[in-house]
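Progress note, sequence design subtask.
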């Protein structure tokens, strides 16, 4: 095995250090040449979820980019994307792909969209996780 595939480490951008410390999870974890990115959410500068779902998604994708950047990776390195949606996954095709396409380019990664009844913080309607390959 190469050195990069043997490496196992937490990826914690400075902006996410408090969550790492308080909730004991890594925003990203690198192992076997892959970066596993925990679900990212869209909270504004006050720590509140914007009412607009598209704005929540943009913020979540930006946070996803922070984790990628901390690992010296970028959006084209994503091979798997998972999005969790509150309030009916059937309606996300009206708006989510447009936001996703602001960040994700060809070749497009595998994507799974799941409908859920709720997320960790009231008012959140989307959470995005990913797997990237070094």
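Output:
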């Amino acid at each position: 095995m190469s050195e990069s595939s043997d490496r196992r480490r937490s990826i914690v951008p400075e902006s996410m250090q408090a969550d790492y410390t308080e909730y004991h999870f890594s925003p990203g974890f690198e192992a076997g040449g892959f970066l596993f990115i925990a679900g990212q959410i869209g909270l504004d500068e006050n720590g509140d979820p914007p009412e607009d779902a598209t704005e929540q998604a943009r913020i979540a994708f930006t946070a996803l980019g922070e984790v990628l950047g901390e690992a010296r990776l970028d959006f084209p390195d994503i091979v798997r994307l998972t999005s969790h949606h509150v309030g009916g996954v059937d309606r996300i095709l009206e708006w989510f792909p447009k936001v996703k396409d602001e960040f994700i380019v060809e070749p497009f990664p595998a994507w799974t969209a799941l409908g859920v009844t709720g997320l960790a913080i009231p008012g959140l309607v989307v959470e995005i996780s990913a797997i990237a390959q070094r």
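Helices lie at 3-6, 17-23, 53-70, 96-100. Work on this subtask will continue into the next period as scheduled.
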